[in-house]
Every structure is written in C-alpha cells, then in structure tokens.
C-alpha cells in the first residue's frame, strides 16, 4: 500500500479549510457550479446529530440528467426555488466518515466507509439523496437526520473492507438491477382493502377459495352463487353492482374507492380483452388483478406499462376454480428461469450491461442469453465484455442488431429457441413498442421485466390470456432498498459478482460537467465514475489508460476491468494530501 493511499484510507492528514462543490441552481449544465467551475465553501462542523463525511466516488446516472433537464420541475424537487435552495447531483455515492456528533458516536466512527441508499422516504414523502437532499458531487458535507432518520431507518450501508471506492458507489445502480429480480408485487389479497369480484351473467361455475379473505369491502358484479358465499364468509361489507358496462367503471372507482382504485380485483371467466383492459385501469397502486378462466381472451389486452413499472400492479391468474391458486410467490416468480433463455432488449447501455453480467454470473442463470442493440459498436462492446464471461460459465450468448439485419427481432428469437420463445425478456429501453415486442417473443409461461420506466398512462398490448392459462408474468421495478445494495455487496465479497466490470470511464471532480455530458451522449460503454478528492484527473475511458496512465492500466483486471489495485495507484498518483 502506497504512503499517500495509506494516509487517504486512514484519514491521516489535516482537513482542508475549504470543500469544492457542484451545486445545481436550476435546469441546465450552465446552472451547475459557478461560471463552469465548482464553488469553494468552508468545511462545516457537525452538530451533535450530524457527521462530516468525505465523498470518495460518485457514479453518474441517467437520472442525474433528468434532474438537470427539469430543474425545479423534477417531481423530487417539488418546484422549490433552486436559486435560494440549490440541490446537488450525485446519488451513487461511496463515502468515509470524518467526524461524528456525540449523539451518533455509538453507531458511527471516523474512518468508517459507507454507501448511500438514496431512495429515501420520510413520512411517506420522497426526499431522495441527490435530488431533494443535495448529493455527492462535493468533497466534504454533513449528513444528519435527513439520511439517518427515514421511514426505513438509516439509509447508509457499511462497506466490507475488501470493497473498493468505485465499486461501492456502484452498489446503487447494481442494487436497482438486483431489485428487478426480487418480489416487489403484493401477491395476496390485501387485508382491510377493497375488493371487486367481476363475473359474467349466466355463469354458474362453482368457485372455491382456499385462502381466507379479509377485505373491508367487496363489490359484487354478476357473480355466481358460489362467489357470493365466499364474499359473505369474509365478513366484509358487501356492495351490489350488477349490470355494469365499461362506461360505468370510472364512476364505480370514484364512488367505492374515492378514486384510489381497487386493492384487489377478481375477474371470473373473462372473455373480452377490451373489457379486461378497462377493468385493469381500476387497480390501485400495488394492487392485484386475478384472472380466473379456462378459455383464451379474444385478443391482446391494452395495459398501462408505466404502472407495471412504477406502481407494481400485479396480474395473477389460474385456469382452475380455486381463486386462491393464483396468489403467492410460489406461483408468481420474479427470478430468471434456471437454465432457460433470457433476452435483453437494449443491452448496450450501462444498466443493460449489468443485467447481462448478472445473468451470466448467476450460478443458476440462463443457458442461452440473447442481447439486442441498435448500434454495432455497442454490440461489439458487449462481445468484448461478455464473450469471455459466457465461455467461463459455459453459457451461450447471441447478439442481434434489428437495424442491421434482414431478419426481424421476433424471427431471430424464435429461430434461436427452436420456435419456443424466451423464458424471460428484460427490457431496458423506455419504449412501449419494444416492450410489446418483448412480450411477443415470450413463451406462454415466460416473464417480461420492464426495467426501463415509461410514464404512467403509456399503454401497450400484451397477451393476458397466458397469465391464467400458462402462468405468464409481467413485472416491473423502480428504485431499490438497502437490502438490494447489501445483496450486491454479499455477492461481490463471495466472488460471484464483479461490480467493477461496469466502470467504463473515470475523472476527477473538475470533470463532473463533462462526465454528465458524456452520459447524455452515450460516449462510454458503461458507468462513468467521478473521484471528488482527485484534482487534475482528466475524464478518460479505461481503454485510454494503457497510453495515458500505464501504471494504472497495469493494475486493471481482465478485459480492462476496474480493480481496487488500479484505484489505489490512481489515488496515490492524483490525491493531494492537505498539509
């Protein structure tokens, strides 16, 4: 360990008087910092309930660009006057504790290394770090109750000693990827909720329910006698609404749920895809729609793709007569099918790459991986990054550019899977048409993961018949929890995941605007990491290091993978120890 790096790691130096920061005063890069430069502020002293932290590394994210473009109009900034109350970008952060207020001394100590879980809520309101709370594009700043006392507790994760700085800051985006394969949907009827049971006139099927229901209210529409008994046995308030047409649905939602939507909907013997689509619009956030039937619908169903991603609505179903058989995690998976085929749509971006890497390194991952990109350059990057990894784990990976092929995406997937389709399709591009295409190449019992978010109200057509006839899954995810980040760290420490493989470019604090611009342009095939403590470090791709910083390049891993050893040499070379 070099002398300078040892001093850096152990805080064996005098704190500077000033800290440089890239505060954001409005929309646009021109409103970041002052005259294109970071501003100098006094290094603050923590009070009894705060601690002073040093920011070691910050990953640049597309979400930063959304804040930059929208300014105070961004949903997490709540139209505040940013001239008077600026924010600061940077939510993918690794930090070191420098000073601790006396009320926090039992939980934190100087030299402790932490990662931030930025998806913060306080009293149900989003106050995310790097958005509402000024983030990590700064050298030193204070952390207090805004991060330590949240609805989920302290949003800081202690780092294992073996974790590097860059890979620690990448726990946040990697945590988002992990979250895509952990169950976010509610998969049982809500206790105390509002349920709607929708039947068909003349249906006398004898339905059962092996699960005890306990909603507060149940609306019954044209249900057979067997379902009426199930509803009455729950002890809920019963509301009769027979003879409804789709024109009546909005009024029903307003009248019975105050416009919030039904927590649970059970649709018996569905036949009309159009009606199912209109019923689905009445699902509450995190609500379920249980389709129970033995015959296919008369077409594809138009559903809100944005709500699948952001509101975690769940479509479940069964072809039997026990409506409870549709519920539960055993029937409704969220992980990639072991040994199956997974298609990654838009795999060339930083987050798409993480999904591919996770699948290849997953011990029970797919045997066949198909990646799509509309850029041959990005496809070549994917080959360079992942072909060796696929061979290492004895997986097959295929590459497809729909813009450069005479063959359609659908035809390519079907040919590659002997006409079976994919077990799983993960879409990392916020385009509804691509989400629809992804659903069209699934097996009847496949899973569609909408990782990229489109605005709520963005509609797309999918095959809902397969939900109840074959157990198809439609899932989406937004954000993460500290448990997701912890899972990434556990896998990194265990050697089953390499977050450093995602790093594509590095730069010092002064390069932050250019780093953000590079992400806007898609300049680098992976994550850009800024080191706020390093001065005069130009922004450069890792592939430039052999020529520009050969001593750092010599410590990179296979295929120019970022390593802790390379990071140590970088800090040794560029960190200026305060005297």
From TrEMBL:
Gene3D superfamilies: Medium-chain alcohol dehydrogenases, catalytic domain, NAD(P)-binding Rossmann-like Domain. One of its GO terms (molecular function) is oxidoreductase activity. Residues 48-142 form the Alcohol dehydrogenase-like N-terminal domain. SUPFAM superfamilies: GroES-like, NAD(P)-binding Rossmann-fold domains. It comes from the Bacteria. Pfam families: ADH_N. Keywords: Oxidoreductase. PANTHER family: L-THREONINE 3-DEHYDROGENASE (PTHR43401:SF2). This is Alcohol dehydrogenase. It comes from Ornatilinea apprima.
């Amino acid at each position: 360990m070099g002398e300078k790096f040892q001093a850096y790691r152990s805080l064996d130096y005098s704190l500077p008087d000033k800290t440089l920061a890239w505060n954001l005063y409005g929309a646009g890069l021109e409103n970041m910092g002052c005259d294109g430069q970071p501003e100098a502020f006094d290094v603050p002293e923590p009070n009894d309930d705060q601690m002073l932290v040093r920011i070691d590394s910050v990953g640049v994210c597309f979400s930063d660009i959304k804040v930059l473009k929208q300014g105070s109009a961004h949903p997490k900034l709540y139209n505040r006057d940013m001239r008077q109350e600026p924010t600061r970008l940077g939510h993918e952060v690794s930090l070191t504790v420098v000073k601790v207020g006396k009320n926090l001394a039992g939980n934190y100590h100087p030299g402790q290394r932490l990662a931030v879980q930025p998806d913060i809520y306080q009293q149900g309101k989003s106050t995310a770090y790097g958005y509402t709370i000024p983030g990590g594009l700064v050298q030193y700043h204070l952390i207090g109750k805004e991060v330590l006392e949240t609805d989920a507790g302290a949003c800081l994760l202690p780092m294992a000693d073996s974790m590097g700085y860059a890979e620690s800051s990448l726990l946040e985006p990697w945590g988002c990827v992990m979250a895509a394969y952990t169950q976010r949907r509610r998969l049982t009827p809500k206790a105390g909720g509002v349920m709607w049971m929708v039947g068909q006139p003349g249906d006398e099927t004898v339905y059962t329910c092996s699960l005890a229901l306990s909603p507060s209210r149940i609306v019954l529409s044209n249900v057979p006698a067997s379902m009426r008994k199930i509803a009455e046995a729950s002890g809920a308030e019963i509301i009769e609404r027979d003879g409804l047409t789709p024109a009546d649905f909005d009024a029903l939602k307003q009248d019975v749920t105050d416009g919030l939507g039904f927590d649970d909907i059970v649709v018996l013997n569905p036949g009309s895809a159009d009606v199912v689509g209109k019923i689905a619009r009445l699902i509450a956030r995190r609500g379920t729609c249980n389709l129970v039937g033995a015959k296919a619908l008369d077409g594809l169903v138009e559903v809100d793709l944005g709500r699948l991603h952001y509101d975690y609505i769940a479509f479940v179903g069964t072809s039997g007569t026990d409506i409870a058989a549709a519920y539960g995690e055993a029937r409704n998976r969220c992980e990639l099918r072991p040994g199956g085929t997974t298609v990654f749509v838009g795999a060339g971006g930083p987050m798409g790459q993480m999904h591919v890497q996770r699948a290849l390194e997953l011990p029970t991952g797919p045997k066949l991986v198909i990646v799509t990109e509309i850029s041959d350059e990005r496809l070549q990057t994917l080959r360079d990054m992942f072909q060796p990894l696929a061979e290492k784990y004895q997986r097959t990976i295929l590459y497809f550019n729909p813009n450069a092929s005479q063959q359609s995406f659908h035809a390519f997937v079907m040919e590659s899977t002997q006409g079976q389709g994919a077990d799983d399709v993960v879409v990392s591009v916020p385009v509804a048409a691509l989400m629809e295409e992804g659903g069209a190449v699934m097996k009847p019992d496949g899973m569609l993961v909408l990782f990229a978010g489109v605005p709520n109200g963005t509609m797309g057509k999918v095959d809902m018949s397969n939900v109840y006839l074959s157990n198809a899954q439609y899932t989406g995810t937004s954000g993460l929890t500290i448990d997701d980040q912890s899972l990434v760290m556990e896998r990194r420490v265990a050697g089953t995941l390499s977050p450093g493989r995602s790093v594509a470019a590095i730069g010092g604090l002064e390069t932050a605007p250019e780093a953000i611009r590079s992400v806007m342009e898609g300049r680098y095939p992976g994550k850009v990491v800024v080191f706020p403590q390093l001065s005069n470090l130009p922004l450069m791709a890792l592939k430039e290091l052999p020529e520009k910083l050969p001593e750092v390049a010599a410590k990179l891993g296979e295929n120019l993978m970022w390593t802790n050893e390379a990071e140590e040499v970088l800090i040794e070379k560029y960190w200026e120890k305060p005297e």
